[in-house]
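On clarity, I found the account of how folds are encoded harder to follow than it need be. An entry of this sort, consisting of the sequence and the corresponding backbone structure tokens, reads as follows:
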Amino acid sequence: MILQKLKASVTQAGVISAEALAKEYGLTPDGVDAMMETWIKRGTIVRQCPCQDPADIHYRLAHHNEIHCLSMV
């Protein structure tokens, strides 16, 4: 399943960009972001977006004691 593969790639890389995941799996960065939303809502993966370039999205594993803030943009 693609969701498991995406999570495995994040686990292996530590931190990985949406662009890199898109290239690896033949998807668009928006498609990756939509699929990663499942893991983000479960608290498994964290999305990181720099203020300078909101399109430069990276993902990493969430820490077990980390507090999550979800924002609707």
